[in-house]
Design a protein that fits this description.
The complex is a heterodimer of chains A (about 250) and B (about 200).
Chain A lengths: L1 E7 L2 E6 L2 E7 L1 H10 L5 E5 L11 H10 L4 E4 L5 H9 L4 E4 L1 H5 L1 H11 L4 E10 L3 E6 L4 E2 L4 H11 L3 E6 L11 H10 L4 E4 L5 H9 L4 E4 L1 H4 E2 L4 E2 L6 H12 L1
Parallel strand pairs in A: 1-4, 1-12, 4-5, 5-6, 6-7, 7-10, 10-11, 11-12
Antiparallel strand pairs in A: 1-2, 2-3, 7-8, 8-9, 13-14
Chain B lengths: L1 E4 L7 H9 L4 E4 L2 H5 L3 E4 L5 H10 L3 H10 L4 E4 L1 H5 L3 E2 L12 E5 L13 E9 L14 E6 L1 E5 L5 E7 L1 E9 L2 E4 L7 H14 L1
Parallel strand pairs in B: 1-2, 1-3, 3-4, 4-12, 5-6
Antiparallel strand pairs in B: 6-9, 7-8, 7-10, 10-11, 11-12
Classes of the chains: A alpha/beta (about 250), B alpha/beta (about 200).
Amino acid sequence: MIPSLLLHKGGLIKSVKFKEYRYVGDPINAVKIFNEKEVDELAVIDIDATRNRRPPDIKKIAEIVSEAFMPIAYGGGITTIEEVKEILFNGVEKVIINKACVTDPALVSEAARLFGNQSIVASIDVKKSLLSGKKVYTDNGKVNTGLDPVNFAIKMQNAGAGEILLNAIDRDGTYKGYDLRLVHEISHAVTIPVIAIGGASKVEDFSQAVQEGASAVAAGSMFVFQQPHNAVLISYPSQAELKQKLYGLIS
Amino acid sequence: MITIINYGVGNLTSIKNMLNRANVDSVITAEPEVISEADKLILPGVGSFDYGMEQLHKSGLVDTLNQKVVIDKTPILGICLGVQLFTEVSDEGKLPGLGWIKGQTVSFTRSPLTGNLKIPHMGWTDVFQYQQSKLFADMYEDPRFYFVHSYHLSIDNPVEVLVRARYGDEFAAGVERENIVGVQFHPEKSHKYGYKILENFAKYY
């Protein structure tokens, strides 16, 4: 049950299908609210870093970590071992690697060897194209690598990733539920935990993803918008609701 | 006032922020002079055992800490690598630890039953209390904490084991003897459960 926060130009945004950015607030303020909600873990992704070819903003990361009373996974712009080391040193538990998984899989292996598999999350963005089916995309959904998601997930597992963050671009921000077929395919192809993201609107969606093999679930819109009018309101299901609908499925 | 010892082992601000929330003043410092004057100490830390000991030596803090903790009996809370450094030696390194607690820091046993365990142990894990302690006073029901570690405590005197957890086998997740107390998990990343630990340390020690 991991809220995923997207950093863009210093603020938090939420996207639909990796586009249509909408400002949803200040990251530190959001972290403070998630403290109150006792979230299990928080994913923070800087969606500008890779695009602008700049390294992770360590100062910003440290600032967020300092306010977070829960474990943090950080992704965005990571291209070197030194960056991984510095991010972990600044109090982040897991680093999320996306583009470098494609361009430099050795980075995943080396980081996993040095810091433990569990610290390294391979983030795989998947989009359906009409002609060729599901493919792995990078650069915020702009670049089609042509890679098959299942084979790529296996490759990342072999490289040493401890988890896969599986993002269905077509579902992002749509509230249509997770791409359960994709979750099923990937979860059954690898033994490492798969975290599904993209499309969740309610706790029942989490349960379905878990039933299809996801080890954990993440979501963005659901935690920052309130239906029916998509007003910005940070929320998180109560521990009681999670216990009743979700935890039984996981253990 | 709690003095958080900064010896170059990671980001300590979240500990300070959690103490702030409990209305406890704290200071993060590497200065032996400031540490000598402390009422209460926290020794945090992430990283390897030898790296931690080297950093303590480099910062010139070992003598100061021995004086404070062993002679003056100033309360000290070790967190993660911090509590491991309280032991005499670690499987992870060659340097002797601070040796305040009789025992060692050991790797997770890879018995056939636990062979599939991933190391480091990372995640939320329930703990069960082993001895009455003020550190766990008024603790919420079913306490769970966030752990990140590849090695764990092995304490010679079972009476000093404060709390246990299970990852494959059971292991000591905390230790307490007189003014010395420590936990393997990260209270500063464990929401209200961790908050209670820090609050109790400030209040009762």
